[in-house]
């Protein structure tokens, strides 16, 4: 058992006080101070002789102490490197990168271990302890890119040894510029003050959204209103999740719960009530004390000043420096090409749902809070496609084994469970990955943990995370290691854990991301796997994997009815694509709207509501509610890291669809293996050592196109050109 006490907090506090400060009011939470752990061996006791984490013996104190030691070692190495350069020591770029890789490897491993434990169960690493670890590690790692002496030395070294070294040099120089290393002392001080103000405003924005989310509570006492809820939604809303059918059920404004309620609740007035509260949250229309309009405008203004100080016209232009798309103009062209097909498709699809609703008793014009409810009813009535019945064919163990088998065929690898490896919970499994295409195919190229039953972040929808515990690092002779963490409900003696179609998509996407981490051939840690991948390409490998679910034969290999082991019928397997294509034009228009709104809010100086009113009718066929204030609760953009980057989710889908079209040209094992080898040798191998645009050209022989995405959504019309009107 882990020596981390889950319930006896008093014991944890007493043990921690020997070397750590603890809060008196919340004894389970440990506060890291700068002096902690900066003496002694680096990370002693965290790893076993085989290099894997010693999860049986790891304690919170060990993680905290190790991070302190390892962060100090990185900072010391940076000072030594700086001194060597100032003293005239001749260092090639490869020397600098290798030296930094060697010293940061232990830090990154401890950080990854802590993250896996935290997401697996925050009683193992409490939130406040993890956040201290996270901040200490992030700050130490960022020191690499904030050193003016190293920046100047690399600036003067134009001739790099190879493609990887050139790419690393570009990364260091861009990171240095964005961190203000090209500015004067006054400019750097000004940038620091701006960042501090931004952090404060972003924190205020997030806190008010959180308070607004919890300020609303809609209680349902009538079981008839929740009778169609899936199990995950019932458990998330029931007063007692263990007796989810008994109620009452509390509807909050967490996004998965709102979306689920609008999709499954048959009472239109109650749907309106929840929808209305959701679009008004954190605005003056809901509670003036929680309004975010002021913070939103301050954040926009500070970001513009930040961009201007760093030499960019606006924040959106600055954001494009780390994106595959390259410029706002290129992005706008993509928006226009997609809208040309999505716009007309949206109108047709909404009208189809309207006709169905009217024929089945709806005496009103559909509004935003009606669409998903009636679309679900239409699938059941016209196609006999019931998601609850569908999930009975996909027990979790069968899905995982089928997914691993598919990956082995696609990429000529072997995935082998290692039952004696130390894990943080008895239900966690560990797998080694072997590559049959390398000379030493009997040695694993990487490994991954699978934790299916984490109890974290259950808000009415199952989630999955790929946690990179360790990157490939040739200097430190390290192979990649990661953890796949899901929060599925535990199985019962009567029924295994069953996956919905959305769950299948999520599991495949998570594992696809893991494959890019595990099969990378990049030698430098800062280029391996997902490192240095442009933001708008960071989800490509996940979406490529999930696109295999469009193939009915793949669905059959994953299936086996939990009651009798029957394979899903081929006709039913074909119908599952309707879950992706139904209302695809409408959904794509919504994605385009949010992406363009984000960009324009970081380009325009107009008030946010004026920007909304300008952008909305371009993409949405339903009128904007007069009091709608949805930007006031867009935390990923105004409190998170996705400012002028929200489009990245959509662009990753676009690139992935184009890649998947190569697999889809012929759905056979032979073609899958042929294209899979090419994909493995490019996207899965290069990591961030080659720009993704060039990786795509090496894979597909051309630049990306919107056509494959449109075809995958069944909204492409052959007679039309993709050129915008």
TrEMBL record:
InterPro entries per the UniProt record, alphabetical: M3A_DCP, MetalloPept_cat_dom_sf, Neurolysin/TOP_dom2, Pept_M3A_M3B, Pept_M3A_M3B_dom
UniProt xrefs under Gene3D superfamilies: 1.10.1370.40, Collagenase (Catalytic Domain) (3.40.390.10), Neurolysin, domain 3 (1.10.1370.10)
Cofactor: Zn(2+)
Peptidase M3A/M3B catalytic domain mapped to chain residues: 261-714
Key words of the record: Hydrolase, Metal-binding, Metalloprotease, Protease, Zinc
Cofactor annotation comment: Binds 1 zinc ion.
Domain of life according to the entry: Eukaryota
Matches recorded under Pfam families: Peptidase_M3 (PF01432)
CDD domains the record matches: M3A_DCP (cd06456)
Family: Belongs to the peptidase M3 family.
Name used for this protein in its record: Oligopeptidase A
Species annotation: Drosophila arizonae (Fruit fly)
Gene that specifies this protein: LOC108617510
């Amino acid at each position: 058992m882990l020596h981390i006490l889950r319930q006896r907090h008093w014991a944890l506090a007493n043990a921690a006080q020997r070397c750590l400060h603890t809060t008196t009011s919340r004894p389970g939470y440990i506060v890291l101070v700068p002096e902690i752990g900066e003496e002694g061996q680096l990370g002693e006791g965290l790893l076993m002789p085989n290099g894997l984490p010693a999860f049986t013996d790891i304690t919170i104190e060990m993680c905290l102490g190790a991070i302190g030691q390892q962060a100090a070692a990185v900072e010391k190495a940076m000072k030594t490197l700086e001194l060597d350069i100032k003293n005239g020591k001749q260092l090639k770029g490869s020397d600098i990168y290798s030296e930094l890789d060697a010293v940061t490897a232990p830090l990154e491993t401890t950080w990854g271990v802590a993250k896996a434990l935290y997401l697996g169960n925050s009683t193992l690493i409490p939130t406040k302890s993890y956040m201290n670890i996270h901040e200490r590690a992030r700050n130490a790692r960022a020191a690499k890119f904030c050193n003016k002496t190293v920046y100047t030395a690399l600036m003067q070294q134009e001739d790099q040894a190879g493609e990887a070294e050139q790419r690393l040099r570009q990364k260091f120089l861009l990171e240095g510029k964005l961190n203000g290393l090209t500015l004067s002392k006054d400019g750097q001080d000004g940038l620091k003050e701006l960042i501090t103000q931004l952090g404060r405003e972003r924190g205020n924005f997030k806190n008010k959204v959180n308070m607004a989310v919890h300020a609303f509570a809609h209680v349902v006492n009538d079981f008839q209103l929740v009778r169609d809820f899936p199990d995950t939604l019932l458990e998330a809303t029931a007063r007692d999740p263990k007796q989810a059918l008994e109620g009452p059920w509390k509807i909050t404004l967490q996004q998965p719960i709102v979306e689920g309620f609008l999709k499954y609740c048959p009472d239109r007035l109650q749907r309106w009530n929840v929808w209305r509260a959701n679009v008004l949250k954190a605005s003056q229309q809901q509670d003036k004390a929680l309004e975010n309009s002021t913070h939103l405008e301050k954040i926009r203004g500070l970001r513009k000043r930040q961009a201007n100080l760093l030499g960019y016209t606006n924040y959106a232009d600055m954001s494009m420096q780390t994106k595959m798309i390259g410029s706002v103009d290129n992005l706008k062209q993509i928006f226009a090409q997609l809208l040309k097909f999505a716009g007309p498709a949206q109108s047709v699809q909404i009208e189809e749902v309207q006709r169905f609703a009217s024929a089945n008793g709806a005496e009103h014009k559909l509004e935003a809070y009606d669409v998903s409810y009636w679309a679900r009813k239409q699938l059941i009535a016209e196609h006999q496609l019931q998601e609850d019945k569908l999930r009975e064919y996909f027990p979790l163990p069968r899905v995982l084994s089928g997914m691993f088998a598919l990956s082995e065929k696609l990429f000529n690898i072997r995935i082998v469970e290692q039952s004696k490896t130390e894990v943080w919970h008895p239900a966690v499994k560990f797998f080694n990955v072997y590559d049959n295409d390398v000379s030493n195919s009997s040695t694993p190229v990487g490994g991954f943990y699978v934790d299916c039953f984490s109890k974290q972040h259950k808000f009415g929808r199952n989630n999955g995370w790929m946690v990179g515990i360790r990157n490939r690092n040739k200097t430190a002779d390290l192979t990649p290691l990661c953890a796949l963490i899901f929060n599925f409900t535990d199985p019962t003696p009567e029924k295994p854990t069953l996956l919905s179609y959305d769950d299948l998509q999520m599991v495949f996407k998570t594992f696809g991301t893991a494959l890019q981490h595990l099969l990378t051939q990049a030698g430098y840690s800062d280029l391996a796997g997902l490192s240095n991948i442009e933001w708008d390409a960071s989800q490509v490998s996940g979406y490529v994997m999930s696109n295999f679910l469009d193939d009915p034969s793949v669905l059959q290999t994953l299936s086996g009815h939990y009651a009798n082991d029957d394979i899903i019928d081929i006709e039913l397997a074909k119908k599952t694509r309707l879950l992706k294509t139904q209302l695809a034009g409408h959904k794509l228009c919504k994605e385009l709207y949010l992406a363009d709104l984000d960009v324009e809010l970081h380009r325009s100086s107009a008030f946010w509501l004026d920007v909304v009113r300008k952008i909305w009718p371009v993409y949405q066929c339903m009128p904007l509610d007069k009091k709608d204030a949805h930007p006031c609760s867009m935390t990923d953009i105004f409190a998170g890291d996705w400012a002028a980057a929200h489009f990245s989710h959509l662009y990753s889908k676009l690139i992935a669809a184009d890649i998947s079209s190569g697999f889809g040209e012929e759905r056979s094992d032979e073609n899958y293996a042929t294209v899979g080898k090419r994909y493995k040798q490019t996207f899965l191998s290069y990591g961030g050592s080659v720009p993704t645009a060039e990786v795509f050209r090496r894979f597909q022989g051309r630049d990306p196109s919107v056509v494959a995405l449109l075809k995958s959504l069944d909204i492409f019309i052959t007679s039309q050109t993709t050129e915008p009107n």
